[in-house]
Amino acid sequence: MGEEIKAGCARPTGGPVGENPEAKKETPQQPLIKEVKSMVTVGKKAPDFTAPAYLKGKFINVQLSEFLGKWVVLCFYPGDFTFV
Amino acid sequence: MSVDSVFVHKMWNDHELAKMVKGGVPFPMLSDGGGKVGSIFGVYLEDAGVEARGRFIIDPDGVIQGFEVLTPPVGRNVMESIRQIQAFQHVRKTKGAEATPSGWKPGKPTLKPGPDLVGRVWEVWKTSMAFDD
Known about the structure:
The complex is a heterodimer.
Chain A: E1 15-16, E2 49-55, E3 58-63, E4 72-75
Antiparallel strand pairs in A: 1-2, 2-3
Chain B: H1 6-20, E1 29-30, H2 36-40, E2 44-45, E3 50-51, E4 53-58, E5 64-70, H3 78-93, H4 121-124
Antiparallel strand pairs in B: 2-3, 4-5
C-alpha cells in the first residue's frame, strides 16, 4: 500500500484525482447556471483521491483506487482526540 | 480521515488510541488538510472547518453502496456498519438475485425479488423481523 513519504517541515497534502472540475468552467457556450454542490450518489463510482496517511509508524500516500477489488469503509470524523 | 495532519494522527494513535487498541490503529489514518476530499464527498463543514462523521461503504468495483453522515456530537454504531457490509456482500454474491429486507442479518431469510413476490411480501416477511430477536 502506497509509497512511504519523508517527514519534512511541509505538511503533505492530497486531493481529488482525475478530472478537474475547475477546468470545465472555461466552456463559453454554457448558459450561466448557479453551481450546485452535489453530494456523491449511491450506485455511482466514488471519486478517486490521494491523501497522506499515518499507518503503523510510517507516513505513506494512499490512493482510493489502490483498493479496487476490496471492500472499503471510508470514515470521516471531526478531529483527532475526539471520539469516532 | 480528518483535517488533522499526519503528525497529529501519529500523536493521537501513539498516545491514546494505542491504549484502546493493541498495536494501534491497523488501517491508514488519512489526512485531508483543507477538507478537499471531504468537500467532494459532501461532508466538509465549511463554517467549522472540520468534517462531519461521514461513513461510506465502497464495493470492490469502487462503487459507493451506502453512506451515513452525522453531525459531530453523535457517534456511530459500528455493528450497523458491519451488518450493512454483510448485506451488500450477500447481495453481490447472489448477483442481485436476493435482497435483504429490513432487519436482515446473516442467518435471517432474504427475499427473491420477481413477479411472484409482488403483493406477497407480507406472507414471507413479518414486521417482527425488522427487529433483533
